[in-house]
Amino acid sequence: MGDTYETIDCPACGHKMKKIFLKDAGVNIDVCTDGCGGIFLDNREFKLVDEQHEELDEIIQAMENNEFAAKVDENAVRICPACGAKMVKNPTSVKGEIIVDDCYTCGGKFLDHGELTHIREEYATEQERAEAAVRAFLYSPEGAELNMVNKVGDRVQRKMDGRNNSALFKLFTKMFGV
Ligand SMILES: [Zn+2]
Ligand SMILES: [Zn+2]
């Protein structure tokens, strides 16, 4: 999904989202500056802002002095503002503390106000996040079994076929290269 210039409505509160241009990353990010403070990102955009060293100044400035009075129900099923598919709630890491809305159709992600900061504090880099996920998996009963048979790629693929396409399993795919 490329950058669009079309204004989108916030999937959490319905307000028009504002395009904030991130100079360092060279992309427009949709931010709900007048409603709930949520952020919509496509998959490529998320990778440009989820690590601590990546610049977010323009988003922080746009958020400053806003109250984000719009009430949102974080448990409600949200509709992807980019493609109209139902979004799915997933934890951002094995810690399971932060739940974001993922769109499996177009790869979009919606983060409620404050979640991006929280995600960036969770792990310093994507590498650390992925390693923690793999470690957690290897210490699980399935993971221990995998270690013994040493056929990681094959078995992980089979495990993944039987499960949903969650962010964690996408990470396993990335780490094991299957
Ligand atoms: Zn909103
Ligand atoms: Zn979508």
What would you say this structure looks like, in words?
The chain has 178 residues and is α+β, with helices and mostly antiparallel strands. It has two domains: 18-122, no CATH class; 126-176, no CATH class. Helix content is 36%, strand content 13%. It has seven helices and six strands; from the N terminus they run E-E-E-H-H-E-E-E-H-H-H-H-H. The protein has helices at residues 43-49, 57-63, 115-122, 126-138, 141-149, 152-161, 167-176, and strands at residues 18-22, 27-31, 39-41, 88-91, 99-102, 109-111. A hairpin with a 6-residue loop joins strand 5 and strand 6. Helix 6 packs antiparallel against helix 7. The longest helix has 13 residues, at 126-138. The structure holds zinc ion (2 copies). One zinc ion (ZN) is lined by residues 80, 82-83, 85, 103, 105-106, 108.
| N-to-C CA distance | 24 Å
| Portion in helices | 25-40%
Instruction: Tell how many strands the DSSP assignment holds.
Output: 6
Total helices: the number is 7
Bound molecules: zinc ion
Provide the spatial order of strands within the biggest beta sheet: 1-2-3-6-5-4
Gyration radius (Cα, Å) is 17 Å
Structural class: alpha+beta
Overall pLDDT metric: 86
Describe the largest sheet: 6 strands, antiparallel
**Tell me, what's the shape?**
globular
- Tell me the count of domains: 2
Spans of at least 5 consecutive residues with low confidence: none
Strand proportion, as a percent range, falls in 5-15%
Q: Give, in order, the helices and strands.
A: EEEHHEEEHHHHH
